[in-house]
Design a protein that fits this description.
The complex is a heterodimer of chains A (250) and B (457). Chain A has 250 residues and is mainly α. Chain A is built from eleven helices and no strands. Chain B has two domains: 123 residues, Fumarate Reductase Iron-sulfur Protein, Chain B, domain 2 (Orthogonal Bundle), CATH 1.10.1060; 325 residues, no CATH class. The longest helix of chain B is centred in the C-terminal third of the chain and has 17 residues. Classes of the chains: A mainly alpha (250), B alpha/beta (457). Chains A and B meet through α1, α2, α4 and α11 of A and α2, α3, α5 and α8 of B.
């Protein structure tokens, strides 16, 4: 695979992934503990505890029963009902980013699993694994474009609408700029490899394609461990948790 | 590293749930709240007062004490100046809750702001302006008007006989008892005409203490909540009727948070009770009230309670009552129900930042005028007061009355307020029916109260 031609080995990639995941897990733990600075109830003393947050959140999220929890999970978290009620355009943008981002992350994880199967020829499945990896190309393209559309609307909204632009801070710009940058570098990496979806060979530059793919990968990994827990990216986790804790704000 | 002195002044000092700390990170900064915030609408030069920005400021302040940088480099002490500046932004808010209604992340902003405020009070950065008088007044007088508790029922017409205990209690509220007695008289007249067996707490009715929770000064709240609940329990009450949205919210949401025992009664807006009786055909309408009327949803009875009681009680009951009154031409304001524009009085703003309250009230009066209404009716004496002040400041002819007063007029009940020690403090528009019902304003002239239009004649 061209990806491993720049001195990167499979083992190195696995090591990097483990380190990134470890940092990500620590980041999430740090945030949960920070949320645990609050109390469990209206009059309780403040603490500073990971488990306090978990217990409080579970209590709040299931306060009105499992059915309300599930309804909130489907309507408010998965379908972003509250966003739709306020702005269909923003809903479209959020849905595109949400599902594009999550699916690409899931596909990347799946791709890594297939890589492992292929590398170690687990159960003699190296060849089918190679074929499966090829089959991932289309969903990668589809959800990549979905993410690109969402990210483009997000950037456009922040740039073109005066009210929105005036109230945008570096906190917002870092998130949207980061998403857009990673998405577009991912596409460019694909386009440079040639025979890409929609673009064909128009942007082929095979010599530097691995370099660009590496840049994209490093950016994505950097986002995952260095930015997600420590910036506005945390809303990817915090917003669904908030919606569930508040039973969808209803 | 932080010194012991700065550590002893932690930003978070109490009363904030961990899921509320989560909410700060859950804000997607979509800016929807900025489009709806009534305080930001009249103070566009102060973006810091917008809900999204307040959440961001608090998040950043917390981050300096609990964030990654604080973990690595030590906590950054929070200066009193920064805390004061934030307090100013935080208290430029009526806690009306429209930001919560439109929030994509479903953040309960009312509870959030009310949880942040005590932390600032504990640091000495809050409350704001005259709001600091609330605890002292309530501790000494048990009401914010420095009135005698013994005078709670001084407005009660002598022909109204109250039992010591009953299934139903009418909760007067401080403002109706001492400043807007037309509402109190109308309420008991209507209940009496309906043969409702109701009691009142009289001197045992202490202020609901809503202002304490709204402004983050909670110390006295338990005392008032426990006293009031116990007083209602002692009278065997099963249903408490409220003609004051602020009291209703406090009794429904706040009191139970401070009361550890069982609460055997339910709380109900008087408008919901009246609607039940109207539907049963119990009300005998005797004269048309020929007025074009609109309804202003009080935040405390509307958005604050729509998920606790029901949207039907919160929004539809008062409208149904108004539309039942013969002669009324009901018009709806553009911003209504859950998306209504706050009048500007709540959250301690009327006491702490009166100019902001007036400007917000003017915006609401403009909403009324836009629909050509002569009268704006509400179910909150505090909204009424602020809308009247704003109306006067704007030079608008709009009159402000309570839904119950219109009902009393439709029933042709005598709502004369008996002379009492607080007559000179009355501040309310009234409905005059001679021979047709029309709105008028009560004005003080010398030591007498006169009705504006009659005086003009």
């Amino acid at each position: 695979m061209a990806f491993y031609t720049l001195g990167l080995t499979f083992e190195l990639v696995i090591l990097l992934t483990v380190i990134v995941l470890g940092m990500w897990v620590y980041g999430i733990y740090f945030n949960v503990k920070k949320w645990g600075i609050g109390s469990t109830g209206y009059h309780d003393q403040l603490r500073y505890s990971f488990w306090l947050f978990i217990a409080t959140w579970l209590h709040e999220a299931f306060k009105d029963g499992v059915l309300v929890f599930l309804r909130t999970a489907v309507l408010d978290v998965l379908l972003l009902r509250r966003t739709l009620a306020r702005s269909p355009i923003r809903w479209g943008m959020h849905m595109a980013i949400f599902y594009g981002f999550l699916t690409l992350a899931a596909l990347s994880g799946l791709g890594l699993m297939i890589d492992i199967v292929e590398h170690f020829n687990i159960l003699g499945l190296a060849e089918p694994a190679e074929m499966a990896k090829e089959a991932l190309g289309l969903p990668f393209d589809v959800f990549g474009y979905l993410l690109l559309i969402g990210a483009t609307i997000a950037v456009g909204r922040r740039v073109l609408l005066k009210f929105v632009r005036d109230n945008t801070t570096a906190y917002d710009a870092f998130l949207i700029g980061g998403v857009f940058l990673i998405t577009i570098t991912g596409f460019y990496a694909e386009w440079m490899r040639g025979n890409a979806f929609l673009v064909g060979n128009a942007l082929t530059y095979s010599i530097y394609a691995p370099h660009f793919a590496l840049i994209h990968t490093l950016l994505a990994l950097g986002l995952f461990c260095f930015a997600l827990p420590w910036s506005k990216y945390i809303h990817v986790i915090a917003t669904p948790l908030t919606l569930l804790a508040n039973r969808g704000g209803e | 590293m932080a010194t012991e002195a700065t550590k002893s002044k932690l930003l978070m000092s109490g009363f904030m749930k961990s899921t509320q700390v989560l909410e700060l990170d859950g804000c997607t900064r979509c800016q929807e709240c900025m489009k709806w915030c009534p305080a930001y609408a009249v103070r566009p030069d102060r973006p810091g007062v917008a809900p999204m920005q307040k959440a961001a400021t608090w998040r950043e302040m917390l981050g300096k004490q609990r964030g990654l940088k604080a973990k690595v480099l030590g906590e950054e002490p929070l200066s009193d100046e920064v805390a004061k500046q934030f307090a100013e932004e935080l208290y430029y808010c009526t806690t009306c809750g429209v930001c919560s209604t439109v929030c994509e992340a479903g953040i309960n902003t009312v509870d959030l702001w009310e949880a942040v405020r005590p932390n600032l009070v504990a640091r000495g950065a809050g409350p704001y302006g005259k709001q600091s008088a609330f605890p002292k007044l309530l501790a000494e007088y048990r009401n914010p008007y420095m009135a005698k508790q013994e005078d709670r029922l001084c407005w009660l017409p002598t022909d109204i006989k109250l039992p010591e205990s009953a299934d139903i209690a009418y909760w007067t509220g401080c403002t109706a008892a001492y400043r807007q007695q037309a509402l109190a008289v109308s309420s008991v007249r209507v209940l009496n005409a309906l043969n409702a067996d109701f009691c009142m707490l009289g001197k045992d009715e202490w202020c609901c203490a809503s202002a304490l929770v709204r402004t983050g000064q909670r110390d006295l709240m338990r005392e008032h909540a426990v006293h009031n609940i116990d007083a209602l329990k002692d009278r065997g009450v099963k249903n408490v009727l409220f003609a004051c949205a602020g009291c209703l919210r406090a009794a429904t949401i706040d009191w139970p948070r401070w009361y550890e025992g069982y609460i055997p009664f339910k709380t109900q807006p008087l408008s919901a009770f009246l609607r039940e009786r109207i539907r049963k055909g119990d009300i005998d309408w005797r004269q048309p009230v020929n007025l074009t009327v609109t309804y202003h949803d009080p935040c405390h009875a509307g958005r604050h309670l729509m998920h606790v009681s029901s949207k039907d009680w919160a929004f539809e009951a008062p409208r149904d009552v108004l539309q039942s009154i013969p002669g009324i031409n009901y018009v709806e304001m553009t911003r209504n129900r859950a998306l209504q524009r706050c009048c500007g009085a709540g959250g301690g703003v009327k006491a702490g930042i009166p100019d902001l309250a007036t400007d917000m009230g003017k915006a609401r009066v403009a909403d009324v005028e836009e629909k050509g209404a002569q009268v704006v009716a509400s179910t909150c004496p505090f909204c009424r007061r602020n809308l009247m002040d704003a109306r006067t400041a704007a030079g608008s002819p709009v009159k402000v009355v309570d839904v119950v007063e219109l009902v009393a007029k439709g029933m042709n009940l005598d709502t004369t307020i008996p002379e009492n020690p607080y007559t000179k403090y009355q501040e309310q528009d009234v409905i005059v029916c001679d021979p047709i019902c029309r709105p008028a304003a009560v004005k003080q002239k010398g030591t007498d109260l006169v009705i504006e239009e009659r005086e003009a004649k």
